[in-house]
Request: fold
Amino acid sequence: MASPGERIEEIVGPSVAAMGYELVRVALGGAAGRTVLQVMVERADRAETTVEDCARASRAISALLDVEDPVAGAYSLEVSSPGIDRPLTRPEDFSRFAGFEARIELARPRADGRKRLRGRLRGLDDDGAVALETRDGRTAVPRADIRAARLVLTDDLIEAGRARRL
Reply:
C-alpha cells in the first residue's frame, strides 16, 4: 500500500510533468493540529523556478487533490521551489550535484556511531549508493539508509547558481 506522499505523487506527478515541472519532494506533516502538504517543484528545463511557476503548479495540484482527496481532513497546500540549498531526494540529484558539498542524515547510525555525514558529492557508485568524499575519505552511503540529504550553502554553490550551472 502506498504512503500518502507516494499516493499524492502518483496523482499529481503526470500533470506536473505535462506542465514542464518535476516533483522534487512531497511531504505531509505539520504541528499543533495543522496539517501541511508541502510540494516542491522545479522547472524541467532547469530555468529558474519563479513565484508564478509555483502559483501555476499550485492551482493544478489543488484541483487534482480536490477530486482525488488523498489527505484525510483539512490541510494547507504549500507549493515551492527547492531553493539553492535544496533537498536531495531523487537518485539523479546526487549525480546532478556531484562536486558540491552535501549534508546527509542517516536513518540509523553507522557502525562507527555516526548518524550525520558531510562532504563533497561524487555521484552514485555502481551499486547506486551515494558516493561522498568526507574529511575521513571516500564513503558509500546506500540510498535506503538516507533519511534526509541536502546541499550545503557554499560560495561554490552560490556561484554555480548565479552562472545557472545547476
The radius of gyration is 17 Å. The longest strand covers residues 21-31. The longest helix spans residues 51-68. The CA atoms of residues 90 and 112 lie 26 Å apart.
